[in-house]
Structure formats: C-alpha cells, structure tokens
Amino acid sequence: MTETAQRDEQAAEEDRGAGLRERRLAAHRSARRVFARFGFHRTLRERLAVLAEADGVHDLDQLSDVYGDGVVEALETKVAGLLGTEAAAFFPTGTMAQQVALRCWAGRTGNPAVALHALSHPEVHERNAFSEVGGLRTLRLTSEPRLPTAAEVRDFEEPFGALMLELPLRDAGFVLPAWEELTEVVQAARDRDAVVHFDGARLWESTVHFGRPLEEIAGLADSVYVSFYKSLEAFGGAALAGPGELVEEAKAWRHRYGGMVFQQFPTVLSALVGLDRELPRLPEYVLHARVVAAALREGFAAAGVPWARVHPEVPHTHDFQVWLPYEPDVLGEVAVRTAEETGVMLFGSAWDRGGPGLALTEVHLRAAGMEWTAEEVKAAVAEFVARLPEQVS
C-alpha cells in the first residue's frame, strides 16, 4: 500500500469512528433504558437548569464570586470538612491541581521524583505534564493491573519524594486495594520518608469497598485531589485538600498556572449540587453495580459467549470493565445498532482494543441504572449477543 493510500485509509477509519460516535451519542440520548445519563450528554439548556437546583445548597442572594471568594470559599470549606483536612483549594482542573500539589511537595522534600503506577492518569492522559510543565520526574512502580504493593514501594531502587496513588485506578478497571493493603503501602512510603498524595478523582465512591468513611480514607494521605464532575456530575472543577500551609502555597501556584479565574460560580454551584444530591447516593450505586455486573456475567455465559469477562468480577466502585472476544469496531457497531432498534443501550461507552481479538469497554452505573433488575440486564445481553456475528473457530 502506498503512503497516500495509507493516509486515505486512516482518514476513512477516522471518519467511520466519528460517525459511530455520533450515532452512539444519539442512541444513548434517545434510549429509554441506559445505565447512566451523564450531564455532558445534555444540551446547554438542560445543563443550565442544574443551577436552578442550587437554591437549596447555597444562598443565591449572595454576591457572585470574584477571584475565588464567596461561593468558591464556601465549597472549599465544605470539601475540607468532608475529607477531614485543614484546608482545601478549588482548581479548574485536576491536571493543574495535581501538578501544583506535587511540585509543592517536591519543594518541601527536596526530591522532585514521584513514584506512581504506569497506568495512573498523569502517565497515560496528561501528555507528560509532570515533567514537561512541573519539573517533576516520574518513577513507575509497576504496570500490573492493580495498585502498587507495599513491597514494591519499600524495595524500589531509587529514592522518591512523593508516592502518588490513584484511588481507584481507572485504567486497570477502577480497582482499589484492600484497606489493609492500602495502609501497608502508605506506611512503606512513610518508612522511606516520602509523602503520600492520593489522586482521588473518584475517591468519593470508595467508601463501600474500604468500609471506611471519607475522612478516614483521606486521612491516610498528606494531600488529596478530588474531582467534582467524574461522579458528582458537576460542570467541571477539582479540589486539592491537605494541610493549611500546603494549600496556601498551592493557591499561589494556582495563580501562576493561570487558575485564578475571575468568576467560577457556575461550576462551583454545580459542584455544591453534586455534593448535596449525588454524593449521598454513591454507595447505593456501588451496590447495584455489583448486581448489574453479576447479571452481565451470567447473561453472557447463558448466551454461550466464550471468554466474556467482567472486571473486577465484583466491582470495587460503580464503574467497571467488560471484556469480549471480538474486534472493537464490531462491538461498537452492534452496541449502537441494538440501542437504535430496541431503545435499550447496554454499552454506552466506546470499545477499545484489549489484545488480539479482544475488546473492552467501561460500564458506568448512575441513577438511571438503579431501575434495572438483574433479569432485565440478562434480557438485554441476549438481545445484544443475538446481533453479534458468529465466531469462526
């Protein structure tokens, strides 16, 4: 194939992918049954309606914020209280919050090396921001689809100033360690005189798995980052929580990084709504995700699909992975076509290649998913499998 032909084929593949994505979003929006209806799938008018719900969570007769005062400070105080920290600072993005946190710690420890997992968000999704922007150096403790162990932390051959743990580890399947394992990992870092930072973008939903309140979980770390949109359905935004002195320094760096936004009240109000409405419901989402995961597993087994996997087998949060032995484009097309024809969307996220002849997708359960019974999940699996092509042995 000539270079021109290769470029044409790549462009055609991108067009097909874009077309499938548009169909998937349209099918998801019109489907009568889904596991989650995310805010970012809604229209601007629908999103603005969220702000009307803020009347019960904050005094809307208060003056709007200017450079981080007023309602922004109210959110920061609330987050610090929930996580049991001395203070918290609002950031427009988690990428910025974590860069700032870890460069502040590097200044205190005198060591810019950050030990983390190879699948952690900064390594996979942030274009080397830690090193390119923050002047930090990352050390990969492991690439296994689990959190680092205490032995891996204790025996790592290079010194590091900070250990960063993503809880849960999204790209490994939203996995969490056992509570005892987590405390041992934290202690192993302490024994090396390293500080511990939690990438807690989805920490909010970890309480069921750990069997501990948020304050106790966050209390293991020296600093914690949390997101407001990944589980709480806010417009965006993040917070860095920790000791008062660290947070004050982080606010100075927030300004230097361009995060001193003139007015932030729409995002902040949506975060307060999420803390009020969604946070209390997360435990029930996690428990029902386990029902859905078991029904998916049983449904694929009954349909005779070889090597179908739900990972983790018992979800640690309300998000998990499904693996099937087909090509991603095949599964993506069948998922969309099934939703278009039945009004039931079993898989609303894209399918990615997981290996030769394997693909994986993420399943997210939110309020809409609470309506599904196990039998309805199995019936939807049967409808989906009926549209898959026969496999050649």
From TrEMBL:
Entry keyword set: Pyridoxal phosphate
GO terms under biological process: glycine biosynthetic process; L-threonine catabolic process
Residues annotated as signal peptide: none
Molecular function terms from GO: L-allo-threonine aldolase activity
Cofactor(s), names only, from the UniProt record: pyridoxal 5'-phosphate
InterPro entries from the UniProt entry: ArAA_b-elim_lyase/Thr_aldolase (IPR001597), PyrdxlP-dep_Trfase (IPR015424), PyrdxlP-dep_Trfase_major (IPR015421), PyrdxlP-dep_Trfase_small (IPR015422)
The Aromatic amino acid beta-eliminating lyase/threonine aldolase domain, residue ranges: 66-297
Gene3D superfamilies noted in UniProt: Aspartate Aminotransferase, domain 1, Type I PLP-dependent aspartate aminotransferase-like (Major domain)
Region spans: Disordered: 1-21
One Pfam family matching this protein: Beta_elim_lyase
Listed GO CC annotations: cytosol
Family: Belongs to the threonine aldolase family.
Matches recorded under PANTHER family: L-THREONINE ALDOLASE, L-THREONINE ALDOLASE-RELATED
Protein name listed in UniProt: Threonine aldolase
Organism (species): Streptomyces collinus
